[in-house]
Amino acid sequence: MRGRDTVITIAMTVLTLIAGCGGTEPTATPVPPSATLVSHMETSVPPTAMPGPTTTPVPPTVTPSPATPTATATLIPPTATPSPPTDTVCAAGCDFTTIQAAIDDASTANGAIIEVTDPVHTEAGIVVDKDVTIRGLGIGNTIVQADDTPGEAPARVFLVEEGVTVTLKGMTIRYGRPSLQEECGGGIMNHGTLKLKNCVVSDNTANDGAGICNNGALTLINSTISGNTADGIAPPGYECGSGGGIKSVKGTLAVINSTVSGNQAEGKGGGIHISCACTAVFTNSTISSNQAVRSGGGVYIKGTLQLTHCTISNNAADDEGGGVCVRGRLDYANTIIANNSRGGNCVIGGEGGYKGMGTIGTNSNNLVGGSSCNPDYSGDPKLGPLANNGGDTKTHALLPGSAAIDAVPAINCTLATDQRGAPRPVEQTSSTTPCDIGAFELQTE
């Protein structure tokens, strides 16, 4: 009997240990969501019971069902949460009532974020001499203007001083005019490093550079420059009237995913004037419906300009270069210059010799109406009107049957998206999938 009792005692001890090691539940290991969940009892089979008065029943084995496959989706990165403002500006209830007061305050350090919350904020002659971000609540929700009436302002809207780095974001800047007629820059005068993101600069007036005048490093991203006028009204010897939208006197100019439209110049460069001391790069951008009384309805180039996947259309000049007038150097690829009236689509100007003459450098996969400036393609690209086709800025859509569709070999499709942020090419079926010429990539329905 002692031997039988000993066996029973050992069996009971083993079963007790198996049942929970003293009654403590094991900690569950997390299982990835995609895995098939199977219970502990379904995956563990108890040992055969020892002879004795108590036996542990063995549950039937359950065969797990196979996991249902799920579709693989392209992950979309979450929208970044904006950093909280350092200071706020509005007519009442904010830290400051003017942007200038916020900038000038001793507690405003470099790197500060000044947020303007007024729907319409009227303030002229704002001097930015610190490294700050000045942001609104969006182009339709925050308007910073120099006056209530176009052409009547006592000063431009913003002056960015030399040596500072400034970002203007999410606002419309309008109705500015320099206090001195001979000065450049109606909406903005930049001497520093300035970035505009998701902004509109419109309805400003100046002798030169009515929208923006640049003497430093200027970058436009997802922004629109429209409806500005370089009127050429200045004391004798100063009346230039160039750069209706932008005049970049020197330094660098980058235009990315942006549109320059509906600007006018009494001189050269209805949309943009690139002076001889400036180097400019335009990427995925549209230059449309600008006018110059002299040369370069869309763009006048005296310095250097590189175009990649741009569309320049519906511009006009009374002299030469309705679309583009090249008096400096133009490097361009995957770009449309077409349907520009008065002055021709692309003109290489200059008299040569010591006075210089325009030159074309890099030139690949371009479509130019009339075949000027030595393109690979010519004719009518079948563009739709300038319109809101998605994204932050207006574009010219490619209509069915356009020669620009799938005309760029895959090896030259260096941009992953078009001006709107749509995929380029629309569907990457292989390493040889081509893409479209211009700022707009036609998408499948």
How would you describe the overall organization of this protein?
The protein has 445 residues and is mainly β. It has a domain at 87-319: Pectate Lyase C-like (3 Solenoid). It has helices at 2-18, 40-43, 99-104, and strands at residues 87-89, 113-116, 120-122, 126-128, 133-135, 143-145, 158-160, 165-169, 172-174, 188-190, 193-197, 200-202, 205-206, 212-214, 217-221, 224-226, 229-230, 246-256, 259-261, 264-265, 272-283, 286-288, 291-292, 299-301, 304-308, 311-313, 316-317, 324-326, 329-333, 336-338, 346-348, 359-364, 367-368, 377-378, 383-387, 395-398. The protein has an 18-stranded parallel sheet that branches. The radius of gyration is 33 Å and the shape is globular. The protein starts with a helix and ends in a 47-residue tail after the last strand. Residues 1-76 have low confidence and may be disordered.
Overall CATH class of the domain at 87-319: Mainly Beta
Detail the poorly predicted runs: 1-76
- Examine the coordinates and then state which fold CATH places here, giving the name of the CATH topology of the domain at 87-319: Pectate Lyase C-like
Globular, elongated, flat, extended or rod-shaped: what is the shape?
globular
Largest sheet: 18 strands, parallel
What's the short story on this structure?
The protein contains three helices and 36 strands.
Task: List the defining traits of the structure above.
mainly beta, Pectate Lyase C-like, 445 residues, 6% helix, 30% strand, 3 helices
